[in-house]
Amino acid sequence: MPGSICDILPSAAAVLGVPEAHDVLGLTDRIGDVRRVAVVLVDGLGYHLLPQLAAHQEHPAPLLASVLAGDTGHLTELTCTFPSTTPTSLVSLGTGVEPGEHGVLGFTVNVPGTDRVLTHILWRDDPPPATWQPVPTWFERLGAAGVGARAVLPEMFVGSGLTESAYRGAEFHPTAKGTHYAAHLAEEIAAAPGLIYGYTAALDHAAHLSGIGSPHWHAAAAKVDALLRHLIEELPGDAALVVTADHGGLNVPDDARIDCDAEPMLRNGIRVIAGEPRVRYLHTEPGAAADVLAAWSELLAGRAMVHSREDAVAAGLFGPVREEHLARIGDVVVTCTGDTAILATDHEPPQASALVGFHGGLTPAETAIPLLTFTR
Question: InterPro entries recorded for this chain (predicted)?
Fold first, then answer.
């Protein structure tokens, strides 16, 4: 079984000498005895997308091509947690635990006891991050062990609820708009020993807006490749670069999209709909859960797995789930298979229906992520 996104920071912490941290990924064997570890997460850099990214001629990605050829670095396959979506994965990375424990259980979730849907990427301080996500992060653990832990992020991210949940305890070094991010990150890696974290979202944005395989996507991949090459060129001799992702993705054609708000049988009995197009959380009206489960199972047969909350939790989809987090999961959980997506045009901004690339589900295209390691 491949390792998990949850294993990355504990393994990096073990390399840096943090007590009780375990190098379950065997990073020490790959990067040796280093004093600084830079972990860079490339949003949307799915493991199964690497060959397609590396082979393009108009927008080449020479570093990734060299990695796939076995000439540079070391490549391993990991998995992200479920749902395979950015907020969930970032907090799984930061805490080292599965979503059922940290509570950031999807792109959007229902706030229990209300009809409110919380969009994690837009969240600031309501609910309070420390109570919504109670698990200590590895940035906090590193700091408590006397090891420096810094996060180099776009300044717009600093202070958000998601940032606090995923990176709480890090020393933040925000990057202003217009600043050369690769240069800033390279400077921070060189500045002091410890863990340095970086993040880039350009590839994921291109996949959503224009589709995987589009010229926009390949151009974004070339920029990511250039970012990583710059970091490697500037890497101090006592440092290692670890590159990973939060999820992969796939394109959803128009004929594979189902609008649940346009189908009366799918609307009936629904109080709140959350999640995202590849994974839907259906919070039902009192007494309606069984009927909703039956209707969605019938209409989406062969296109989605439809579980009750109890069955989804028992199947281990979220890992062990804390009692206080259970209500954030829908009464019914719908996970698309194949290339299906479930739109909710009456509940979400119109931009959601215009997307081309999606993720969130359980297919390998969505859940397989790379672990790339480089040293000088």
Answer: Alkaline_phosphatase_core_sf, Phosphodiest/P_Trfase
